[in-house]
């Protein structure tokens, strides 16, 4: 397709306007600007139009129109992704398909512990709707006030409660999807057991819109806990943190719903750029762990559990200090320390981010080995290491040396440091993307680290479901 061919251009837009209304076909640079740059401002693309359908049927109509005019579509939710998966390319030939108007909570079934929501529902609104039904929707992450459930499903987001509740994939029971041909698959079944063939649901979760467009989902709910206990514990190293994790799991079992690791440098950055976020201890420690217990019995039961497990940690020399949140305000303050780390990094300047996972048992060794390799390759580089220790997912980031030029540092070292990190991830039987997705950022790295058999299977699926390559092209997999 030639983007300068005005007859094709007009015919496509006219058909879209007829399908969803002129007000929802954005065409001016000013109207489209907020949809064309990713959250990290790493990628800025161009679009033929930004399309905002309001129903699943309108999404299907847009997909059929795009097929008739050979226009590629880039699905987008809250545009909070970190790998460029929802940003169009620079050709100006693609159209962004925003799901933001599909915001309905279609149903809550407390007896079945499910909620059915449309893809454009903001995560915080899903959590709120669940609470209003006296239930818990446990997916929680820093962008929950703006990210959407469709985007969470598209990237298989993890968040802070994976340790107990699993990733978005594990929280999903059924999907509604518009296929690349413009058909609607209604798989909105709230069943825990359905053994009737291929698991189509799991094909679309984590596929980042490359196989079809998720328009609605049935998600699991849980009883609201009677109490939540949030605490911080100071430890010497990631190895000690793993010992504390073992103690906590033995003491609390499934009541342990959060276990986050934060290095001292992470908290130093938070204090530097957000001084209102106070360091919780009277002295500095190499590592701080954030723990959360969710108890269905009582606050006292949760407090007794925590005090018992921490006494064991002190007795065994695993922990040096601990502080327990006494109220909701203090609990929120503890979580704010954790959630301000990426914000502080952004304030500090450009950095090299990695969203990796390795088996939990290997985390300490991975951090030690990779840190030494990076120090040798890029002297003075500062490591910002934090994340979901309880499920093996680390945000393993490299900050420019103190006083250095961030852009020059990235230009000189990014490729080499990515290679070091990803090679060591694979050596430790891990993954180069644990929850942020591949997007366009990691397509080349994904092709390098995956086996030929995996790549062949993924390409076969893509060709089978999207033979014309119109669903979010250039993302997740290099078709060769």
Automatic annotation (TrEMBL):
Record's signal peptide: none
Location of the FAD-binding PCMH-type domain: 43-224
Cofactor: FAD
Pfam families associated with the record: FAD-oxidase_C, FAD_binding_4
Keywords of the record: FAD, Flavoprotein
InterPro entries, alphabetized: FAD-bd_oxidored_4_C, FAD-bd_PCMH, FAD-bd_PCMH-like_sf, FAD-bd_PCMH_sub1, FAD-bd_PCMH_sub2, FAD-linked_Oxase-like_C, FAD-oxidored/transferase_4, Oxid_FAD_bind_N
One BP term from GO: respiratory electron transport chain
GO MF term set: catalytic activity; FAD binding
Xref: PANTHER family: BLL6224 PROTEIN (PTHR43716:SF2), D-2-HYDROXYGLUTARATE DEHYDROGENASE, MITOCHONDRIAL (PTHR43716)
Record family assignment: Belongs to the FAD-binding oxidoreductase/transferase type 4 family.
Protein name, UniProt field: FAD-binding oxidoreductase
Native organism taxonomy: Bacteria, Pseudomonadati, Pseudomonadota, Betaproteobacteria, Burkholderiales
């Amino acid at each position: 397709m030639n983007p300068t061919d005005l007859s094709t251009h007009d015919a496509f837009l006219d058909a879209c306007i007829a399908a969803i209304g002129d007000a929802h076909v954005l065409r001016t640079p000013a109207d489209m600007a907020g949809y064309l740059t990713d959250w990290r401002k790493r990628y800025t693309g161009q679009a033929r139009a930004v399309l905002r359908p309001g129903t699943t049927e309108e999404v299907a109509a847009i997909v059929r129109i795009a097929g008739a005019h050979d226009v590629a579509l880039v699905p987008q939710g809250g545009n909070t992704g970190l790998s460029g998966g929802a940003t169009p390319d620079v050709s100006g030939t693609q159209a962004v398909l925003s799901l933001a108007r599909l915001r309905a909570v279609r149903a809550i079934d407390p007896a079945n512990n499910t909620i059915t929501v449309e893809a454009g529902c903001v995560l915080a609104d899903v959590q709120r709707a669940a609470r209003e039904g006296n239930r818990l929707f446990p997916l929680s992450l820093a962008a929950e006030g703006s990210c959407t459930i469709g985007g969470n499903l598209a990237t298989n987001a993890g968040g802070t409660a994976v340790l107990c509740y699993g990733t978005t994939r594990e929280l999903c029971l059924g999907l509604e999807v518009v296929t690349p041909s413009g058909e609607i698959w209604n798989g909105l079944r709230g069943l825990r057991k359905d053994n009737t063939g291929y698991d189509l649901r799991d094909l679309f979760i984590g596929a980042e819109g490359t196989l079809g467009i998720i328009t609605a989902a049935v998600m699991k709910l849980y009883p609201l806990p009677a109490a939540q206990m949030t605490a911080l514990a100071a430890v010497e190293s990631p190895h000690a943190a793993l010992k504390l994790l073992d103690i906590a799991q033995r003491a609390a079992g499934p009541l342990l719903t959060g276990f986050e690791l934060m290095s001292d440098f992470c908290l130093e950055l938070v204090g530097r750029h957000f001084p209102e976020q106070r360091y919780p201890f009277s002295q500095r420690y190499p590592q701080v762990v954030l723990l959360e217990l969710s108890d269905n019995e009582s606050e006292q039961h949760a407090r007794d559990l925590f005090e018992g497990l921490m006494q064991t940690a002190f007795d065994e020399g695993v922990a040096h200090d601990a502080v327990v949140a006494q109220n909701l305000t203090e609990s929120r303050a503890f979580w704010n320390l954790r959630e301000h780390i990426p914000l502080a990094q952004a304030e500090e300047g450009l950095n090299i981010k990695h969203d990796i996972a390795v088996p939990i048992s290997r985390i300490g060794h991975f951090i030690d080995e990779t840190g030494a390799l990076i120090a040798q390759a890029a002297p003075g580089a500062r490591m910002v290491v934090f994340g979901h220790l309880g499920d093996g997912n680390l945000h393993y980031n490299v900050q420019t040396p103190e006083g250095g030029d961030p852009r020059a540092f990235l230009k000189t070292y990014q490729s080499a440091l990515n290679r070091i990190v990803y090679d060591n991830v694979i050596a430790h039987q891990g993954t180069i993307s644990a929850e942020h997705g591949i997007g366009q950022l990691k397509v080349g790295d994904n092709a390098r680290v995956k086996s030929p058999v995996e790549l062949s299977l993924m390409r076969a699926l893509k060709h089978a479901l999207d033979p014309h390559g119109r669903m979010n092209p250039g993302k997740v997999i290099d078709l060769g």
